[in-house]
Amino acid sequence: MTETMNWGILGGSKFALEHMAPAINAARASRFAALATSNVARGAEFSAIAPGLVLHESYEALLADPSIDVVYIPLPNHLHVEWTLKAVAAGKHVLTEKPIAMQANEIDQLIKARDASGKLVAEAYMIVHHPQWERARALVRSGAIGTVEHVDANFSYDNRTDRDNIRNRPETGGGGIRDIGVYTYSSVRYVTDAEPLDLSAQIKLENGIDTFAKVIGTMQGPMGRFTYAAMTSMRLFLRQEVVFQGDKGMLRLTAPFNANVYDIARLEWHQPGLVTQVERWPAANHYITQVEAFGHAAQTGAPYACPLEFSRGTQAMIDQVFAVATEI
Questions:
Q1: Do 56 and 187 have their domain in common?
Q2: 86 catalytic per annotation
Q3: How far apart are the C-alpha atoms of 70 and 30, rounded to whole Å?
Q4: pTM for the complete prediction?
Q5: What is the pLDDT of residues 22-80, one digit of tens each?
Q6: How many domains does the chain have?
Q7: Which of 27, 112, 126, 315 sits CB 3.0–4.6 Å from 286 for a disulfide?
């Protein structure tokens, strides 16, 4: 049986306040114990979630806290590698928000630090801990839809009025591809074990960040080759959907990325004879299951669903998209 691990959070981000801090407190064998922020009001909001929370005025002070076992890092994208390395050097296990790096080769130094320290270091890619994605992966790999021939993945939202949002700022590593392309690209890799063979991309740029991207190409994996199309945007109406099209069936996930926020997690398994089997997960919280899986792996050495090597493959795909993209 695993012991309770004390978690500390670097920075008082809105996402951490709304999702990860409550998840850490709700997860088995975990405790939200400390926060690093100089914002007194934000510290009070986090303290309401976890009475007795220790507040540190600097990131360095939290990393020096000997009571903290795990550090969660929700800082702006361009700071992820720097503070992940500092947290590992401080002897902590580290869970860092996606994308964990700005370039694939930066992840090599994270892998090296992880291996040298013996600590678990991983990207906070929560969807692989959700039962809808575990189910999709199992169905596709069992041949339930036959041979995968094509995959569509789409994710859009509109934050054009939030000009100060880090996603709208190039200096913080903003843009739709880094924010949500990690979902439309990596989820397909997770289910199929496929990697891109060739890609082409069209993007719209605004103030140095991509606000729309359309990617098409082919991917190759153990189950064969298939065509692929993905759309991400930070300037369109809300949309989330992933479809795995096989020659004997089809899977459609209608709330694949923000389950219970965008909609209830729902998987449609379309079968011959116009038969459709629908599965739903109204109670599943992938942030809680992510925390539990991370804590278990950190303490036992059990395999983790999103190791750094997997994250590196996703970042390499993101890098490839940027390299081939043409502006429209």
A1: no
A2: no
A3: 9
A4: 0.96
A5: 999 999 999 999 999 999 999 999 999 999 999 999 999 999 999 999 999 999 999 99
A6: 2
A7: 126
